Amino acid sequence: MDNDNFSFLADAESSITVDKTEGYTPKEQELIHQLVQERLGKKNAIEFESLDDYVVPPKMFFSMIKKPAVSIRANRMEFSMSAIRLFEGVQHVLPMLSENKKRMVVAICAEEEISSIEWARLKKDKWVNRSISCPEYVQSIYKMMNWNKECRYKIYGRLANSERGLVLVFDLASAVMFDPLPEEYFDKHTGKMKKRIVKYYPDEIRMKLGRSYSDYEALQQRSSFESLSGYMDTSGGAVPATVSEELAASISMQEQEKKRETLFGTIIGNGGDDDVRNNE
Description:
Elements: H1 3-18, H2 26-41, E1 55-56, E2 69-73, E3 76-79, H3 81-86, E4 92-98, E5 103-108, E6 117-118, E7 120-123, E8 126-129, E9 132-133, H4 135-145, E10 152-162, E11 165-171, E12 176-178, E13 183-187, E14 192-196, E15 199-200, H5 203-206, E16 211-212, H6 213-222, H7 245-250, H8 253-278
Antiparallel strand pairs: 1-16, 2-3, 2-10, 3-9, 4-5, 4-6, 5-11, 7-8, 10-11, 10-12, 12-15, 13-14
Helix pairs in contact: 1-2
């Protein structure tokens, strides 16, 4: 568009703004104003950037202090406060393992369930995490994953829908390993010997910048619903599953988001109130 046309549009808008007696309603004036701004904006169109050649880095390369996580060591496991806050008001959960998927899922449950565990407690009117002593259960995880029994492992989780509503999913294959003893090193800035915790990332994460954007998008769609098919509870019993892996993969993102909002409001809202009342 040449300068004369821009001048004409600007003059037209100015005349409409100044003279309110031309017969235009306020709504019509607003529509004309929007049209003028749209035409003027086309002069500086924003360039389109394709994401085909980009990679999304692994999440644990950045600060994960506010992400749900679980720490597992020789005879116990402990969920982070971020996980507790995500399901605030929930005192008991049901952990489930899938040997095939190499994942652990944590679902909200009632205290009366056979395999329920207490992952949080009220302390001075605030929910806090608690260290869960479960040597046999932890040993089964170490054996399944072929982990070093001397080391501690930390796994970051994600929220997903399932047959039991909202769950936390922990991919055990993505666990970060921590050495049992700190490493001593010389700090050049202070001239003193210091100690630091050494951690090791899985090879598939450590050796790459990340996954391609297209793979990341595909994973996002697949990971929003977690079928409980193949999971075992803490007693070793199979978890009832009503949604197969194939059906879970076919659920649209819109359906998942609607279900996520509904379940989050129902389970966290009602369940949290019930738990608080039970502990009063």
